[in-house]
Amino acid sequence: MIIPKPRSLTPAAGTHRLDATTTVDGPAELVAPLRRLLGPGTGLALERSEAATLRVVHEPALPAEHHVVEITPEQVTLTCADPAAAVWATQTLRQLLPPEALSAGATRTEWELPCLRVEDGPRFGWRGVMIDVVRHFMPLRDLYALVEQLSLHKYNVLHLHLTDDQGWRFECRSHPRLHTVGGTRPESMVGPDGPTDGTPHGGWYTQDQLRSLVAFAAERGITVVPEIEFAGHVEAALTAYPELAVPGHAVDRVRSAPGISDYVISTDDASLAFVLDVFTEVLEVFPSTFVHVGGDEAPRTQWLASPESAALAEQRGLPDAGHLQRWFTEQLRDWLAERGRRLVGWDEICDEGPLPGAVAMAWRGPEKGVAAARAGLDVVMAPVTATYFDYYPSELPEERRCIFGLTTTEQAYAFDPLADLDADSAARVLGTQCQLWTEYVPDLRRAEYLLWPRACAHAEVAWSDPAGRSFEEFGQRLAAHVARLDALGINHRPEAGPLPHQQGGTGIWQRGPSAPPAEEPLALAEPGV
């Protein structure tokens, strides 16, 4: 019935009627999410009244985000630990109503809720989705739509990947060429080996637009965690400000190709000051405690070949120039900590040993997160083997091109973020997150197709206790849940039956270095357009 599966659900006899006479009562900060999320789809005004039949009760003794939904013929009571819990309790109510009650514009104003008692709360405090808005820019309205979709599934983190080799999407007022120059690339690759499309691609978000997104997400229980990528994945920044480059390695255009670039920033004092200018503005826009600095896939090639970098490493007492990234990340960690924030980085930040005080986002495999947790670091589990939804969702030849690899809905559901961890280390796992990189994701419709229903499965991994659930039982609930996705106009991938017509070609199902092994190579034929 409900996705993600609640901790307990006890049915009772009867139904409760919602209609134009239904009123609400409770603390303002808890009633607001209820009215905001339930009113538009049901068409109910939900005015406040002391005689309300729909009540929200604050219970601070409950753990964070925990709530109880109790429905009797006479009364609906939502008992909530905090405003986030009020959002999740309301999302449970929305899923108990007919699908058409989720979408604004319904003509009915009378609805029935089944009588029951739900006691619920999340398994993990970090339940995230990463959206890459660099490889393909996503208009602000589409981010708003995704926030609504994530909130329905009780996700509470939107990790926004804002900068990379292929573009810079954050308005930086102190260094405006970052977005005015670095925000546009000359063309995009339509496959791993070409050709290019010959069409410029770009865009960026103003700081005020991002503040608006942050506020909109917060009203729906979601924290926006920004990612500003350093010291690798910086060709867009180097195009805008060549002086940031390692001497002798200038960049003259924003990168169009996917893949890993050798280009890194120099990490000298001027570059560090520049980066701190950028992060100063980032902190003014994003109130999130956690700030992601990237830190992945930064080859040491240019640093190790540079006499200037060697001198810089010696001056800083480092073994060699290959350790400049570690030094640079430590500076960012300390600077953020002084401002009450915490650095998050992809698991490469621990390649020279654990980075105390940082959060490691384990993407290269669960074993990276296990090692970091055992070393005393907080961890977010985000491995390619189960949480990369830019991978192919099936082996069917009708699938459009994805980057490589295979992650089915069943694989996503089978992932256990706490596997191979003892109790002490498991306590270090903040949660889990799925990723949608967008090299081959040009628009919201394609993003939705790749997210749903795999993100339904991942949302349940993040929220629900593993005891008492199974993929087979999940599939039964999912079959009903897709009607909700349809009612909301979400372009989900069908789990059974033929695929919808997919305009545009695909390519070969490729296994990259991080992709899960397969016994036989899979060749996916090019479908007709």
Describe it for me?
- The structure is a single chain.
- This protein has 529 residues and is an alpha/beta fold.
- It has 2 domains: 8-120, Chitobiase/beta-hexosaminidase domain 2-like (Chitobiase, domain 2, 2-Layer Sandwich), CATH 3.30.379; 126-487, Glycosidases (TIM Barrel).
- It is built from 17 helices and 18 strands.
- An 8-stranded parallel barrel has the order 7-8-13-14-15-16-17-18, surrounded by 6 helices. It has a 6-stranded mixed sheet with strand order 1-6-4-5-3-2, covered by helices on one side. A two-stranded antiparallel sheet has the order 9-10.
- Helix 3 (140-152) packs parallel to helix 5.
- The longest helix is centred in the middle third of the chain and has 17 residues, at 269-285.
- Mean pLDDT is 93; it is low at 503-529.
- The helix-and-strand class reads alpha/beta
What's the total number of strands?
18
Side by side, the strands of the main sheet go 7-8-13-14-15-16-17-18
CATH superfamily heading of the largest domain: Glycosidases
Question: Gap between N and C termini, in Å?
Answer: 37 Å
Number of domains: 2
Query: What is the CATH topology of the largest domain?
Result: TIM Barrel
Percentage beta strand:
15-25%
Radius of gyration: 24 Å
